[in-house]
């Protein structure tokens, strides 16, 4: 078969097969009678789909059939009953932006290649920095990057270069022993960044959090003093706005006070999950003091509703991203182009090729406006509070925490067979098996997906996430009834 013939068949697949395939996915966004997933064990799945890469081409009918199988056995993250991760639901406007992104197949390293996206990125970073974070206009800078973990690592890189610019040339050799501080409830990307970037896991100091999961500023102060006594230099404090499990917001103002008092330590804030609260005038008080942070990581692909992936690192230190990461490749970043080369932002990034992720957020924001974006976030918080109310009113459910700051709702389900018993070690051991058993049944039947995990002294519990404005109060009621149905006979 000639390349020209196959190209014509590819055009046919794009115009005829793809719309049919996409319509099957679109249906899962609103049809609550459909399964969230068709679960199979790995070896069973291998028998259902031909994963081999053939020597000869297969025709379009086979390709479409294979794609249908992929859709059928994939998790429907846009399904109304998918609550498993810190993202759920699919917005049609952002999805449209994502499809356009893929069709353009471009990269965001130079204005030469991405003129429109360069200006879109600048607009989003400037607006979010000045109107929502509170940075002064002209001091802000930022870069879209592949996920919140990478955005947090950018924060670590900036902290290092800001204090030790010579490390760009010399590396870690010659630098004093360094400590990085983060709460014991923070995201694991801080630890990953430490060993990925050469700081070392042993140089990450976990600061105690309170019973609600918030970093204790006084404990941070003590930890820094202890580091100094041992000969370590404090490099960075990582605060969190919306912890992964409990949804806690660290007290940023008090943490910033500690950083200033201890020698202007770099303050980075991981707002990947809870940062969407800044979009709402009713909720942004949760992040009081955010303007004092040196750098901030935010994932619009979480509660803000952009399609995966969409993440950004923002800093109030203009030009520091470029100073820390510029390599000056002359085949890309020539300085004698026909336009202002300051618009070639790619050298601020550690990547070369970089997806045009900002467009998905920009189209979404345009479609709803700032007021609509705020309403979407507030809807998530309102539904989470409604679920919390239902849990307190329904026998067999027990909340873990007295307060709830984000849309994470953590709770146990106690089957009828375990109610009214002495809650000794054996009882708690039995309870630890309840959430995994119910989750397993939900997966196998495809009825719903909710995460669970242990945390510190707490045995396995459900962590219910509301991250989609399409979620309804009826959906919250369905969560209760589904867990009851799967767990009542345990």
Topology:
Elements: H1 3-27, H2 42-48, H3 60-73, E1 82-83, H4 92-104, H5 115-133, E2 141-145, H6 148-163, H7 167-170, E3 178-183, H8 189-196, E4 204-207, H9 217-229, E5 233-240, H10 252-261, E6 266-270, E7 295-298, E8 311-315, H11 320-325, H12 358-393, E9 397-399, E10 408-413, H13 425-431, H14 434-445, E11 449-455, E12 458-465, H15 473-487
Parallel strand pairs: 1-11, 3-4, 3-5, 5-6, 6-7
Antiparallel strand pairs: 2-8, 7-8, 9-10, 10-12, 11-12
Task: Characterize the structure shown.
There is one protein chain. This protein is of the alpha/beta class. Helix content is 42%, strand content 13%. It contains 15 helices and twelve strands. The protein has helices at residues 3-27, 42-48, 60-73, 92-104, 115-133, 148-163, 167-170, 189-196, 217-229, 252-261, 320-325, 358-393, 425-431, 434-445, 473-487; strands at residues 82-83, 141-145, 178-183, 204-207, 233-240, 266-270, 295-298, 311-315, 397-399, 408-413, 449-455, 458-465. β5, α10 (252-261) and β6 (266-270) form a beta-alpha-beta unit. α12 (358-393) crosses α15 (473-487) and α14 (434-445) packs across α15 (473-487). The longest helix has 36 residues, at 358-393. The N and C termini lie far apart (59 Å).
């Amino acid at each position: 078969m000639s390349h020209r013939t196959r190209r014509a068949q590819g055009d046919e697949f794009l115009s005829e097969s793809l719309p049919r395939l996409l319509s099957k996915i679109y249906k899962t966004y609103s049809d609550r009678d459909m399964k969230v997933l068709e679960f199979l064990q790995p070896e069973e799945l291998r028998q259902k789909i031909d994963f081999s890469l053939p020597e000869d081409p297969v025709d379009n009918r086979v390709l479409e059939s294979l794609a249908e199988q992929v859709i059928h056995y994939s998790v429907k993250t846009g399904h109304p009953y998918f609550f498993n991760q810190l993202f759920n639901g699919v917005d049609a406007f952002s999805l449209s932006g994502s499809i356009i992104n893929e069709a353009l197949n471009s990269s965001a390293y130079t204005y030469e290649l991405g003129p429109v996206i360069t200006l879109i990125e600048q607009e989003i970073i400037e607006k979010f920095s000045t109107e929502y974070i509170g940075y002064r206009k002209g001091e802000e800078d930022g870069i879209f990057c592949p996920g919140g973990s990478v955005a947090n690592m950018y924060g670590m890189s900036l902290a290092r270069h800001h204090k030790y610019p010579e490390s760009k040339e010399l590396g870690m050799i010659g630098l004093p022993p360094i400590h990085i501080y983060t709460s014991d409830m923070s995201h694991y990307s801080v630890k990953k960044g430490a060993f990925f970037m050469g700081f070392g896991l042993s140089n990450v100091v976990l600061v105690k959090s309170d019973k609600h999961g918030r970093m204790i500023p006084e404990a941070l102060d003590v930890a820094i003093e202890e580091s100094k006594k041992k000969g370590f230099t404090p490099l960075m404090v990582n605060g969190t706005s919306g912890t992964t499990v409990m949804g806690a917001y660290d007290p940023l103002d008090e943490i910033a006070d500690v950083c200033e008092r201890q020698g202007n330590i770099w303050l980075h804030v991981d707002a990947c999950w809870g940062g969407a609260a800044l979009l709402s005038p009713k909720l942004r008080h949760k992040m009081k003091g955010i303007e004092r942070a040196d750098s901030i990581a935010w994932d619009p692909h979480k509660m803000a509703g952009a399609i995966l992936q969409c993440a950004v690192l923002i800093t109030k230190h203009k030009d520091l991203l470029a100073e820390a990461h510029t390599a000056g490749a002359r085949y890309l970043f020539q300085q004698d182009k026909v336009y202002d080369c300051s618009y070639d932002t790619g050298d601020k990034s550690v990547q070369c090729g970089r997806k045009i992720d900002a467009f998905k957020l920009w189209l979404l924001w345009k479609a709803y406006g700032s007021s609509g974006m705020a309403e979407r976030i507030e809807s998530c918080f309102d539904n989470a509070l409604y679920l919390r109310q239902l849990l307190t009113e329904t026998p067999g459910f027990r909340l873990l925490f007295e307060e709830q700051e984000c849309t994470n709702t953590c709770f146990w389900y106690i089957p009828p067979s375990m109610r009214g018993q002495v809650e000794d070690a054996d009882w708690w051991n039995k309870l630890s098996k309840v959430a995994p058993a119910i989750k397993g049944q939900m997966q196998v039947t495809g009825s719903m997906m909710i995460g669970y995990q242990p945390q510190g002294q707490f045995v396995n519990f459900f962590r219910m996430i509301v991250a989609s404005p399409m979620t309804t109060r009826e959906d919250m009621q369905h969560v209760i009834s589904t867990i009851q149905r799967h767990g009542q006979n345990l």
